[in-house]
Write a structure and sequence with these properties.
Elements: H1 17-33, E1 37-38, E2 44-46, H2 47-54, H3 59-63, E3 66-69, E4 75-78, H4 83-92, E5 102-111, E6 123-132, H5 137-154, E7 160-165, H6 169-183, H7 192-200, H8 227-243, E8 248-249, E9 261-272, E10 275-283, H9 287-290, E11 298-304, H10 305-314, E12 327-332, H11 334-349, E13 354-356, H12 363-372, E14 377-382, H13 383-388, E15 390-395, E16 401-405, H14 409-414
Parallel strand pairs: 1-5, 7-8, 12-13, 12-14
Antiparallel strand pairs: 2-4, 3-4, 5-6, 6-11, 7-9, 9-10, 10-11, 14-15, 15-16
Helix pairs in contact: 1-5, 2-4, 5-8
Bound molecules: histidyl-adenosine monophosphate.
Residues 81-83, 112, 114, 119-121, 124, 126, 128, 130, 256-257, 277-282, 300-302, 304, 306-307 line the site of histidyl-adenosine monophosphate (HAM).
């Protein structure tokens, strides 16, 4: 029986992994410029962290978690998202004790048991950032602008930013009543999911994919904002405008996770089939305290790298090509083979990208390999040359060949 990868997972193979390396390098490069430091947290955590952090009535917690009992009979869960673990670590390591705003980023796999489709996997990857300790709207704007700039520098075309404010808990409680007054007469027309969400988490009704036609006249949460929330949102928008980040306001944008307060936003783009959200995030002022930490605010985003990679491919974006081989070494004769093994290692230790044949193939086949690997040079060593301490170095571009002393091989290649 041949094994297959689990449903909803992916092998990222050479030829494609270069796109991923490009995306990840961009994420790291931007994180340096925006002064976010990398954090690496475990890919599994106590189940309760996600129940309390992400929210018990969310789809993620209710339906999508990979939860298991470990041998010590503890309930553990593969992380469905990055924020909860980072918040746990922020609290556990007392990072809130630092005087500066704590700005962190992460890149890594996340796990959700969902129905796979283009851009939706069971193991997927996020690039995420989280900034703790600041309530200033300038950091909300920084986070939104960061993700937008990331998409732009990757080269993605047509990325749109949608923002909303979902206020503080008091605002949401008041809005909830207003919204239910609007939804109650529609109840029978709405789908089963919406009906159940009306009872448990009415804001999420607005997120329904099938019932949007009924919500055109839904009351806007923006009309329910109190002065503090409204001022915060105004400032975020002002900063975004000043930064040149184009955005649209979507007063029906509610995120799928429960921890958000104030700013909520999403990045959207066409080109991944039915799915158009490539990332999202927002502010979460109650989360740190909610999982037992001090009362510290936070704001961040998570961007799905599968979705970025898909659009990159669809839009035919050219990425910088990895450096090809400097030299392919070819041995003709038994003693020459041993010397080539040694020379190969020497070249590599001197920073040269070098390769040889390991299968005892004929010279012609080896030359073809050198071609396939786009080697700049081939270096051919026969037993005769070896006895003279020389090697034939051939430029693959010009076909020009010359004898060089073995001791000066690296030097010649670098030259
Ligand atoms: P999220 O909206 O649940 O937010 O996920 C963020 C992004 O992860 C999505 O927009 C999508 O690109 C990607 N994603 C989610 N599920 C899948 C999947 N099954 N397959 C492929 N990609 C997927 C969060 O996770 C928050 N932690 C973001 C955040 C950080 N908010 C504040 N800080």
């Amino acid at each position: 029986m041949a094994f297959q990868k689990p449903t909803g997972t992916q092998d990222i193979l050479p030829g494609n992994v270069e796109n991923w390396q490009f995306i990840e390098e961009k994420a790291r490069d931007l994180s340096r410029r925006f002064n976010y430091k990398e954090i690496r947290t475990p890919i599994f955590e106590q189940t309760e962290l996600f129940e309390r952090g992400v929210g018990e009535t969310t789809d993620v917690v209710e339906k999508e978690m990979y939860t298991f009992r470990d041998k010590g009979d503890r309930s553990m869960t593969l992380r469905p998202e990055g924020t909860a673990g980072v918040v746990r670590s922020y609290v556990e390591n007392k990072l809130y004790g630092e005087p500066d705003t704590c700005k962190l980023y992460y890149i890594g796999p996340m796990f959700r048991y969902e129905r796979p489709q283009a851009g939706r996997q069971r193991q997927f990857h996020q690039f995420g950032i989280e900034a703790f300790g600041a309530i200033d709207p300038s950091i909300d704007a920084e986070v939104v602008a960061f993700g937008y700039q990331f998409c732009r520098e990757i080269g993605l075309q047509g990325v749109k930013v949608e923002i909303n404010s979902i206020g503080n808990p008091a605002v949401r409680a008041a809005y909830r009543d207003t919204l239910l007054n609007f939804l109650n007469p529609l109840r029978d027309k709405l789908c089963k999911d919406c009906q159940s969400r009306m009872d448990r988490n009415p804001l999420r009704v607005l997120d329904c994919k099938v019932d949007q036609q009924y919500f055109t006249d839904a009351p806007s949460i923006l009309d329910s904002l109190d002065e503090e929330c409204a001022t915060h949102f105004e400032k975020v928008k002002q900063h975004l405008t000043a930064m040149g980040v184009e955005y649209t306001i979507n007063h029906r944008l509610v995120r799928g996770l429960d921890y958000y307060t104030h700013t909520a936003f999403e990045y959207k783009a066409q080109g991944i089939g039915a799915i158009d959200t490539i990332g999202g995030g927002g502010r979460y002022n109650g989360l740190v305290a909610g999982i037992g930490g001090p009362d510290q605010p936070g704001v961040g985003f998570g961007i799905g790298l599968e979705r970025i990679a898909l659009i990159l491919e669809k839009q035919g974006i050219a990425i910088p090509q990895p450096k090809p081989l400097d030299v392919y070494l070819i041995a003709l004769g038994e003693q020459a083979e041993d010397e080539v093994t040694k020379q190969l290692h020497i070249l590599r230790t001197q920073g040269i990208i070098a390769e040889k044949d390991y299968k005892g193939r004929k010279m012609k086949a080896q030359m073809k390999s050198a071609d396939r690997m786009q080697a700049r040079f081939t270096a051919i060593l026969g037993d005769d040359e070896l006895s003279r301490g020389e090697i034939a170095l051939k430029s693959m571009a010009t076909g020009e060949q010359k004898m060089v002393p073995l001791a000066r091989l690296a030097e010649e290649i670098i030259k």
